[in-house]
Design a protein that fits this description.
It is built from 13 helices and 15 strands. The protein is α/β, with parallel strands linked by helices.
Length: 437
């Protein structure tokens, strides 16, 4: 059904026809004070908890209580290889071979570990290209890697910005910057989906051009994994890292993930920080001090796995796999995007602008919305939305982010959000930009 109307009956009809509607019941939606579920549109920041997460975590607590240290080696859920239970579903989500993916550490830790291997500056090739509005952790990580290698970010950091008066990056400007600095460019480090605007960057094209000029390329996929289909292996990406607590619903501070392309995983010439969990599994517990790397991305592991965090993630990956994977979720997401686009245009109108790209290949499920009336207090409007039961977030200086997540957000959630938003804007006297009383 794509003949939208502003009536709630349209949303309810879309929900009746939705083949994924039942998966909403696989998650617990945070309640409002009256006990009714929130309109939870902040899965781009922290995904809702899977119903089965408590069972999966409790199982490991029980195994700990009953087996003690023996839990490392006993049964199908033995802790020593526990991370391997996550490998296949995670590889499917990012479009990789199982040997290229490992669940470990946290996002920024993984970025540092991978840049140790893939940022190899020389006196003539030492620059790293990032975006001007990079997530602060990424910016800090890149600057510190440059300094750690004895270079100066003033000379070695290349920053790509949106054009004056624009909010998103033009792909041609990214490509021009790569070409311009090609002879001195060591690494391109960009997001797959920009956290503020929700823009999807052309990862395959960026990878190809970076390699053409002799640079390596890595992506921060925090806002991409579980949101859009990925094909990291086929796109020939050198490395990537991501968190799992957004669209993969692993819980606050959940364990991260890493990808290294197959052509690099057994390359012993790469610099690497070593830990005992990266050495060959067959001899790991012989406690030898000669490092024998696992011939997969697992050789980047440092320490044994955080089992309780991985158990929560496993519960979510089981739901995503059962639902048919990211491409199935994306099909629903695109319909939800089209529906929300329609309602924003028909009901909210020019009082709010979205700075997220409009072309479907250039966007995920997150919207970045900005009040156009310069006299309006956007942050107070965000507060009113939260008070009315809409879970969304505010990002300085002027954006309200909302993200309909196809696994657990309904079309009626979207309709209720727009209805509430309209009421709040009206009550606040917000007018379209340029309107005069």
């Amino acid at each position: 059904m794509t003949n939208f109307t502003v009536n709630v009956e349209t949303a309810r009809a879309l929900d009746r026809d939705d083949p994924l509607a039942a998966y909403r019941g696989s998650f617990r939606i945070p309640p409002m004070k009256n006990g009714e579920p929130q309109i939870y549109l902040v899965g781009n920041s922290l995904g809702a908890v899977p119903v089965k997460a408590a069972d999966y975590v409790t199982t490991e607590l029980d195994r700990w209580a009953n087996l003690g240290v023996g839990g490392h080696f006993e049964g199908e859920l033995a802790w020593e290889p526990y991370h391997e239970l996550l490998t296949q579903p995670m590889a499917a989500i990012v479009g990789a071979e199982p040997s290229e993916v490992v669940v470990m550490n946290s996002l920024t830790v993984n970025l540092h570990l991978l840049m140790v291997s893939f940022y190899s500056p020389t006196p003539t090739r030492h620059k790293i290209l990032i975006e001007g509005h990079a997530f602060p952790s990424d910016h800090f990580a890149v600057e510190s890697q440059i300094r750690q290698r004895g270079f100066d970010p003033v000379e070695s950091l290349v920053v790509v910005e949106p054009r004056v008066g624009e909010e998103t990056l033009r792909p041609e400007d990214i490509m021009s910057a790569i070409a311009e600095h090609g002879d001195s460019l060591a690494l391109v480090m960009l997001p797959g989906v920009q956290y503020y605007t929700g823009q999807v960057l052309p990862m395959q094209e960026i990878s190809a051009l970076a390699h053409d000029v002799g640079a390596r390329v890595g992506f921060d996929l925090a806002h991409a994994v579980g949101n859009i289909p990925l094909a990291l292996h086929d796109w020939d990406v050198d490395f990537a890292a991501w968190c799992t607590y957004k669209y993969l619903n692993s819980g606050p501070g959940g364990v991260g993930g890493a990808f290294v392309h197959q052509r690099h995983v057994d390359d012993q010439s790469l610099s690497k920080f070593l830990g005992w969990w990266g050495t060959r599994k067959e001899t790991r517990f012989e406690m030898a001090t000669v490092f024998e790397p696992i011939p997969t991305v697992e050789s980047w592991q440092l320490s044994n796995a955080p089992i309780l965090s991985m158990a929560a993630l496993r519960s979510s990956l089981d739901v995503i796999t059962d639902a048919g994977g990211v491409r199935v979720l994306r099909a629903k997401s695109e319909l939800q995007i089209a529906y929300l686009d329609y309602l924003l245009d028909a009901v909210i109108g020019e009082r709010v602008e979205s700075i997220t790209p409009t072309a479907m290949p250039e966007r995920g499920c997150q919207y970045a919305l900005r009040i156009t009336d310069p006299s309006a207090n956007g942050k107070s409007i965000h507060g009113a939305l939260e008070a009315a039961g809409v879970a969304c977030d505010w990002r300085h200086p002027a954006v309200i982010r909302v993200a309909p997540v196809p696994l657990y957000n309904s079309f009626e959630d979207i309709h209720r959000f727009v209805t509430i938003f309209d009421e709040i804007l009206t009550n606040a006297g917000v007018r379209p930009s340029g309107a005069r009383g």
